[in-house]
Amino acid sequence: MDALKKTERHEWILDGLDCANCALKIENGVSKIEGVLDCSVNFVTKTLTMTASSDEKEEIFRQTEQKVHKLEPHVRMIVKNTRGRSRENSRNEADITQVCATEDCACGHTYSHEAHGEEAHAHSGHDHGEHVHGDRDHHSSSQAHAHSHGDDSHAGHTHDHGAEGTRRMIVRLAAGAVIGAAAWWLPVEGVGKLVLFLLAYIIVGGDVVLQAARSLVRGMAFDEYFLMTLATVGAFAIGEYPEGVAVMFFYQIGELFQGIAVNRSRKSISDLMNIRPDYANLKTGDSVRRVSPEDVRIGELIVIKPGEKIPLDGKVVDGKSHVDTSALTGESVPRTVEPGSSVLSGFVNTSGLLTVEVSKEFGESTVSKILELVQNASSKKAPTEKFITKFSRYYTPVVVIVALLLAVVPPLVAPGAQFADWVYRALIFLVISCPCALVVSIPLGFFGGIGAASRSGILIKGGNYLEALNDVKYAVFDKTGTLTKGVFRVTGIYPADGFTKASLLETAALSELHSTHPIAASLRESYGKELQPERVQQYSEISGHGIQAQIDGRLVLAGNAKLMEREHVAYSAAQQAGNLDEGTVVHVAVDSVYAGCILISDEVKEDAAKTIASLKKLGVVKTIMLTGDNRTVAEAVGRQLGLDEVRSELLPQHKAEAIEQLSASKKTGDKVLFVGDGINDTPVLALADVGVAMGGLGSDAAIEAADIVIMNDEPSRLVTAIHIAKRTRRIVWQNIIFALGVKVIFLTLGAFGIATMWEAVFSDVGVTLLAVLNVMRVLKARSYE
């Protein structure tokens, strides 16, 4: 336990975080704090996620709060809600001292615990140990994203325009435009014209100038506010009053539309995962009252009316209905539930009234874990995101230095060069340098891809895993429960002379009456009639062979070929009947006379063969099946599905060794994907580059072990996931090439004096807006059949 407590993971909502560059500055700043092992700030979800040493957590939190306040004073840190966590963690939290617990912190900043939904909480969001799955109660994306409302908490500029903020901005821009037009057209000269243009400029861009001044005081020059202020004030300084006002006006117009586009994209993402129930109808005695899902305990009864979301996992005790599972599984066909049926939070009751006995508290429920996975996915950045983070860290300072040289060197060395002309070019150069389009659209793209996959019933735990799907060259599968249904059924009955199919099946079912083995269960299920225990006088299991029983006074043997050989029963001729290499064969003998055999098969899933074929079309060079089943059955399944390689009769450690060998022999950059049921294959899921748990709906082990969880039993969802990954990467790289290409063109034009401030604003704000609109295509529904 001590080892687990050395590092802890913490999450905050950054309320008022208003630009991607601000997020980048906070991430870089907090990452440098001693004791912080990893830090990620996601502009899309407005979440700061940090892994830090537990030994100095109070000091780390204090420094984090100070750093955020220094970089962005208007941003408030709101601790993510910790309700619904395990009892052990709740006890541990009692020992944690809240940093900045008072309203006014040492640094003079309010450490907000105001409720946004239920995000703020009296305790820090500490997770003891490195694993956080299932420990926190997460809300729907629409609640988990703390938006700044209009001009909420600061007078500075914001990208995040609420409805009220949008109206105010439109009024300001309209007023500034009218005054600017009057200054342009009225016959006013000299100081009067300057005053009118200055008034228009202040109305339109006063908030930008104020924010730039604050940045400069904090020593944080060269953010977009400072660059835009410098460029427009520079235009006034060289007498270009109309251009100074117009550039600020169009910059603000671009920012307005950019904010609307980003918020619309956020809403589209949150709508994909809008599965969090708002309430539960708790039944106590004869009354039903509406309560928060977090307040319902295990064993209590809840009532779900037609049209309502099922708020907690449980079992139906009364009522019959159809439930829509599409929010979790992507399945459009409703599922029938009745007393005894298990239901999961996130399902929607479509018809009858249901009474459900709760089996899990909300913090451990399926919907809570799914929301946690999707929201936490933003903290695991894809390599492309990391590249852009590093790129922008060096790109902007380099461009600023070049701009400074551009303003100073030519007037000194070139004959006839005008200082004002080259300063103007340098100002244009600075405006163009802002890498907003990249740092906004790329995280938005990966988060959108993860959201789109969630809507299809595929949970991807991070952008890194989404991007890794593009490079999968080796797909390795478990057999039972992954490529096959994992349900044994009688698929062939072959009686010997003197016996009928009915008598053979009845004898086999009676012999297996007391066995708990899945094969025994399949024989009893196939027989389908009530079995009379009194007919079985004696019963014994012969380990590794089968069953010996006394039925109606006759000695019955039921088992494998080794049992027949041990008891010297001739069976070879009868064994040739039927295609017995496609499943498990149960031989039956009565009083040492061979009665026949029964074939029991684990059926292959309907879409398994199509999945293997589709993977090969997508660039997978080798498909492999690893199974503990016998060689004959495994090879038959392999032939049926068109697999490249089959390895059978493996123990779990042998599967792990096979993955290690494959990883060692593959080319650098190629990825090995393993698909298993997530329960018995935990070590193998961890060893593969991408571990996929199949049929993870409600399976804690699957959700914990895998990098990707397919919520239903369809292997074809793996193909959908790879299509989404390829589509996401294609759109992200479109944005990277487009944004950098436009910037290179306009930086060149600006340096040669061809581009004006108008083009500079387009290359910054316009390109960002187009990139955000492009990335919203990730969210559109697509069929990958």
Automatic annotation (TrEMBL):
<dbReference type="InterPro" id="IPR023299">
    <property type="entry name" value="ATPase_P-typ_cyto_dom_N"/>
</dbReference>
<feature type="transmembrane region" description="Helical">
    <location>
        <begin position="394"/>
        <end position="414"/>
    </location>
</feature>
<dbReference type="InterPro" id="IPR059000">
    <property type="entry name" value="ATPase_P-type_domA"/>
</dbReference>
<dbReference type="InterPro" id="IPR036412">
    <property type="entry name" value="HAD-like_sf"/>
</dbReference>
<dbReference type="InterPro" id="IPR001757">
    <property type="entry name" value="P_typ_ATPase"/>
</dbReference>
<dbReference type="InterPro" id="IPR006121">
    <property type="entry name" value="HMA_dom"/>
</dbReference>
<feature type="region of interest" description="Disordered">
    <location>
        <begin position="116"/>
        <end position="163"/>
    </location>
</feature>
<keyword id="KW-0547">Nucleotide-binding</keyword>
<keyword id="KW-0812">Transmembrane</keyword>
<dbReference type="InterPro" id="IPR044492">
    <property type="entry name" value="P_typ_ATPase_HD_dom"/>
</dbReference>
<feature type="transmembrane region" description="Helical">
    <location>
        <begin position="192"/>
        <end position="210"/>
    </location>
</feature>
<dbReference type="InterPro" id="IPR017969">
    <property type="entry name" value="Heavy-metal-associated_CS"/>
</dbReference>
<dbReference type="InterPro" id="IPR051014">
    <property type="entry name" value="Cation_Transport_ATPase_IB"/>
</dbReference>
<feature type="domain" description="HMA">
    <location>
        <begin position="8"/>
        <end position="76"/>
    </location>
</feature>
<protein>
    <recommendedName>
        <fullName>Cd(2+)-exporting ATPase</fullName>
        <ecNumber>7.2.2.21</ecNumber>
    </recommendedName>
</protein>
<keyword id="KW-0813">Transport</keyword>
<feature type="transmembrane region" description="Helical">
    <location>
        <begin position="426"/>
        <end position="453"/>
    </location>
</feature>
<keyword id="KW-1133">Transmembrane helix</keyword>
<dbReference type="InterPro" id="IPR008250">
    <property type="entry name" value="ATPase_P-typ_transduc_dom_A_sf"/>
</dbReference>
<keyword id="KW-0067">ATP-binding</keyword>
<dbReference type="InterPro" id="IPR027256">
    <property type="entry name" value="P-typ_ATPase_IB"/>
</dbReference>
<keyword id="KW-0597">Phosphoprotein</keyword>
<dbReference type="Pfam" id="PF00122">
    <property type="entry name" value="E1-E2_ATPase"/>
</dbReference>
<keyword id="KW-1003">Cell membrane</keyword>
<feature type="transmembrane region" description="Helical">
    <location>
        <begin position="169"/>
        <end position="186"/>
    </location>
</feature>
<keyword id="KW-1278">Translocase</keyword>
<dbReference type="Pfam" id="PF00403">
    <property type="entry name" value="HMA"/>
</dbReference>
<dbReference type="InterPro" id="IPR036163">
    <property type="entry name" value="HMA_dom_sf"/>
</dbReference>
<dbReference type="InterPro" id="IPR018303">
    <property type="entry name" value="ATPase_P-typ_P_site"/>
</dbReference>
<feature type="transmembrane region" description="Helical">
    <location>
        <begin position="736"/>
        <end position="755"/>
    </location>
</feature>
<keyword id="KW-0472">Membrane</keyword>
<dbReference type="InterPro" id="IPR023214">
    <property type="entry name" value="HAD_sf"/>
</dbReference>
<dbReference type="InterPro" id="IPR023298">
    <property type="entry name" value="ATPase_P-typ_TM_dom_sf"/>
</dbReference>
<keyword id="KW-0479">Metal-binding</keyword>
<comment type="similarity">
    <text>Belongs to the cation transport ATPase (P-type) (TC 3.A.3) family. Type IB subfamily.</text>
</comment>
<keyword id="KW-0406">Ion transport</keyword>
<dbReference type="Pfam" id="PF00702">
    <property type="entry name" value="Hydrolase"/>
</dbReference>
<feature type="compositionally biased region" description="Basic and acidic residues">
    <location>
        <begin position="116"/>
        <end position="140"/>
    </location>
</feature>
<keyword id="KW-0104">Cadmium</keyword>
<feature type="compositionally biased region" description="Basic and acidic residues">
    <location>
        <begin position="148"/>
        <end position="163"/>
    </location>
</feature>
